[in-house]
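tokens incoming
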């Protein structure tokens, strides 16, 4: 049922009140991105009706998962959950290593010499992922040779592609789940078999834009480039073992990778990075201005592609990731500044400090993973319990991923292994989980954290104390294990499938990755 005028005005009022209440969204980029998405959602709802909540049969299980809390400051090195899970892996004879997961993302293999893994993801999404670099290059066609070169620079290297992998696996895992009834947006219907014109993804959503000659030229460039994408079948669903990846899922995977890569471009300038993915950082090759412009261009093209999915809910969810990325950077910059109560969020290594650190971790890393998983389930037209379960999975997996990343900063043996300088977090003045756990044992870390390891020898001293502590690294790994366990528990809301097994395998592999 269409929303009436009064309902539309009420939505507009709520939108304005939200802008006032949420400081992360009042920053110019965040306000524009999320504000635009919310207005689009409101207008779409006025004509097609709001996507009504459909709880689904496992809604109570999801509610229970959402209520569960992890007390990070008290996690011990010997974690019962971790021990149990490790033993289960041994009993099953399953190989859960990050190399295997990376292979599943690109070459996608999942076997060892003695036994096959739970599932061979090469049979699920390998062929789809093999097109992603070419598809991205087509989406980024600008007609300007230098802009093409700079914007595609990081895509020419061998990235993990973990986010596109997750989007596609979630698409498959939710394709057989309980569905909403009715057509909920232009390219989301009650069944995958419904006749949908997926070429809309590459056509402008506004007829008026055709009078803008520059925009019309850009649109034609993109449409010409993408029409031959994906081996000449860009609008054909991919079906394997009765599970489906829709063209909209593929485009979402590409959008997710563009957003992620744009954040890398900006981060590398801010952090004065020297290398990325085994090659000189983009600003080292092309300069700061080019790097920033390329990052902005990636966001612009991601936004265009997102709008052309023509799903207001997905647009709003993915646009909010931009707010989260900026908010996370602000939290990282302000973690030692005093708040209104006269105390800094990370003034001491207590639970409030861990909560602040983990929230920042979610905003900077977990949000994009979690919300792209959620959006993938929405594009599958899944019921709310399934959608929320994929979000919980992505959120917990994203936090675990970053925890291990922070751990590797202390355990990696070389820059070549890690893909960035070892100890980079300390050099940037960042107090991560290993430092917080060591700080609980060594109070002398406090002054070093307070001055962000700015004095000569501070970073080396902190490094020594982390390694001298009774289990700071092991406790960080145990904390990551808790999040992985929670992520896998959320997966059990989804119907059994080989895609669900693959998602579980990826979660396990996070804990043992080496880079």
């Amino acid at each position: 049922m269409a929303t009436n005028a009064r309902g539309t005005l009420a939505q507009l009022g709520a939108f304005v009140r939200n802008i006032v209440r949420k400081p992360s969204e009042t920053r110019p980029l965040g306000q524009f991105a999320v504000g635009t998405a919310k207005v689009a959602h409101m207008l779409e709802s006025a004509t097609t009706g709001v996507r009504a909540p459909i709880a689904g049969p496992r809604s109570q299980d999801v509610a229970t998962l959402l209520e569960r809390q992890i007390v990070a400051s008290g996690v011990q090195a010997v974690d019962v959950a971790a021990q149990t899970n490790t033993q289960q892996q041994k009993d099953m004879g399953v190989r859960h290593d990050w190399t295997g997961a990376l292979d599943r993302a690109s070459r996608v293999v999942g076997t060892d010499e003695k036994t096959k893994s739970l599932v061979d993801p090469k049979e699920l999404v390998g062929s789809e992922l093999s097109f992603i670099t070419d598809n991205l290059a087509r989406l980024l066609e600008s007609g300007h040779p230098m802009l093409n070169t700079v914007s595609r620079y990081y895509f020419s290297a061998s990235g993990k592609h973990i986010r596109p992998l997750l989007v596609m696996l979630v698409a498959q895992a939710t394709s057989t789940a309980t569905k909403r009834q009715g057509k909920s947006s232009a390219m989301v219907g009650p069944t995958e078999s419904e006749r949908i014109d997926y070429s809309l993804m590459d056509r402008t959503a506004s007829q008026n834009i055709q009078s803008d000659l520059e925009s019309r030229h850009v649109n034609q460039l993109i449409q010409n480039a993408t029409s031959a994408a994906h081996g000449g079948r860009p609008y054909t669903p991919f079906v394997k073992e009765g599970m489906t990846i829709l063209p909209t899922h593929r485009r979402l995977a590409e959008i997710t990778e563009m957003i992620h890569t744009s954040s890398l471009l900006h981060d590398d300038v801010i952090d004065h990075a020297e290398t990325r993915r085994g090659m000189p950082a983009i600003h080292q090759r092309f300069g700061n201005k080019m790097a920033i412009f390329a990052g902005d261009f990636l966001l612009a093209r991601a936004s265009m592609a997102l709008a052309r999915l023509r799903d207001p809910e997905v647009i709003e969810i993915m646009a909010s990731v931009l707010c989260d990325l900026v908010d996370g950077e602000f939290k990282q910059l302000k973690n030692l500044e005093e708040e209104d109560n006269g105390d800094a969020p990370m003034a001491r290594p207590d639970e409030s400090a861990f909560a602040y650190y983990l929230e920042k971790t979610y905003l900077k890393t977990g949000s994009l993973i979690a919300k792209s998983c959620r959006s993938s389930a929405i594009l599958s037209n899944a019921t709310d319990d399934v959608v929320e379960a994929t979000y919980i999975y992505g959120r917990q997996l994203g936090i675990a991923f970053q925890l291990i990343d922070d751990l590797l900063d202390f355990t990696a043996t070389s820059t070549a292994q890690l893909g960035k300088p070892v100890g980079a977090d300390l050099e940037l003045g960042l107090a991560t989980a290993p430092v917080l756990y060591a700080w609980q044992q060594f109070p002398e870390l406090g002054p070093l954290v307070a001055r962000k390891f700015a004095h000569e020898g501070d970073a080396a001293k902190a490094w020594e104390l982390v390694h001298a502590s009774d289990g700071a690294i092991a406790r960080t790994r145990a904390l990551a294990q808790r999040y992985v366990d929670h992520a896998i528990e959320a997966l059990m809301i989804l119907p059994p499938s080989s895609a669900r097994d693959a998602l579980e395998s990826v979660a396990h592999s996070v804990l043992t990755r080496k880079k």
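note: DSSP finds 24 helices and four strands in the chain.
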